[in-house]
Specification:
Helices cover 26% and strands 36% of the residues. It is of the alpha+beta class.
């Protein structure tokens, strides 16, 4: 049995369904992220786990115990809010101590636990400061320490890094993951940031319109998206519409005037299909050396990468190329474009999730 289970969980607000029939099974020690755009139901799902939102139907089980209708303060979960929700009139030490005091932990044990937790998040030297005297990253660590010090069975993170600037946010992603690995606490995080979800999660749960659309390890989710929505929401993708000529291991698809090989194509001959190929999977070659030629119509420099837009016989294609010692391409340059048949992914549910 999974450590944390959501079984057919739904949430209605009057006639509006915020979460629809979500089932999710999380193992002990896992770091699982709920990913999706605003309004997809991810925060509502987290709130139902925490007990802040009442479950309309379904069950939530924690370590075999049904907590569906338990009060939030009886679940013993650690929670880090988007705003951190620190007590401004309390020092770092007192903020971290608060949860232990509410549990009436003996003073000696409480001080030992606080010291160990502050050391874990590298805040020992700042124990006597107030939240207003801390940077955004330091406040985030205080909130994390306050949630971890009670040794919760599950840690819930609601957009914990969204208030940080880009550079600090990236640093804190990896620090958060390292701390979680050291402690081993089962963690559920909510975010709309794809890079954040992919970089630190064991598994990512993509939600759309209140439903779970795919649950996978980050690499699998990115490399094998199952729907049109996932292929474009999680990273960039080139979408190609065609018609199946032959299916099977060596399938072929007609796209415009071209026939393209698709490895392990599972669709009936004659059926319309939607394929996806990631921009970084496309190789740039000399003209007439690839599957087709393309002309650069726009380019954008991102430091480590160049993003090129190509006009081709099958429509516009995006290509991501690493910044190297070679001269970057110029607009109106013509090149050959190629990719492996393994790089083309057949997207299912495209009609309903477009």
């Amino acid at each position: 049995m999974s450590f944390l289970s959501l079984v057919n969980v739904s949430k209605q607000y009057g006639a509006t369904t915020a979460v629809a029939d979500v089932s999710l099974y999380i193992e002990k020690g896992e770091f699982v992220t709920l990913l999706g755009p605003s309004g997809c139901g991810k925060t509502t799902t987290l709130q139902m786990i925490a007990g802040f939102a009442e479950v309309s139907s379904g069950r939530i089980l924690l370590d075999g115990h049904d907590i569906t209708h338990s009060k939030p303060n009886t679940r013993g979960l650690g929670i880090v809010f988007q705003s951190y929700a620190l007590f401004p009139h309390m020092t770092v030490r007192d903020n971290v101590s608060f949860g232990l005091e509410m549990r009436r932990m003996p003073r000696a044990e409480r001080l030992e636990r606080i010291h160990a937790t502050l050391d874990l998040v590298h805040l020992t030297a700042l124990a006597d400061r107030y939240p207003r005297e801390l940077s955004g990253g330091q406040r985030q660590r205080v909130a994390l320490a306050r949630a971890l010090v009670i040794e919760p069975p599950v840690l819930l993170l609601d957009e914990p890094l969204s208030n940080l600037d880009a550079k600090l946010r990236e640093e804190m992603q990896f620090e958060l993951r390292n701390i979680q690995r050291k402690v081993g606490t089962t963690t559920v995080m909510v975010t709309h940031d794809q890079a954040e979800a992919l970089s630190i999660s064991d598994r990512v749960v993509v939600m759309q319109a209140g439903r779970v659309t795919q649950v996978d390890a980050p690499y699998t989710l990115y490399d094998q998206p199952q729907t049109r929505f996932i292929s474009t929401f999680v990273g960039k993708a080139n979408l190609l519409t065609g018609q199946t000529i032959t299916s099977g291991v060596n399938g072929r698809v007609q796209i415009g005037s071209m026939q393209l090989a698709v490895h392990d194509l599972r669709s009936d001959p004659g059926s319309e299909v939607l394929l996806s190929v990631r921009p970084e999977k496309i190789t740039l070659l000399a003209p007439d050396q690839g599957l087709l030629n393309g002309v650069v119509t726009a380019r954008f420099f991102l430091g480590a990468q160049w993003i090129y837009y190509f006009r081709t016989a099958i429509g516009e294609l995006i290509v991501v190329s690493q910044n190297s010692d070679l001269q970057p391409l110029q607009e109106q340059d013509e090149l050959g474009l190629s990719w492996s048949s393994n790089s083309l992914r057949l997207l299912t549910g495209a009609a309903t999730l477009a």
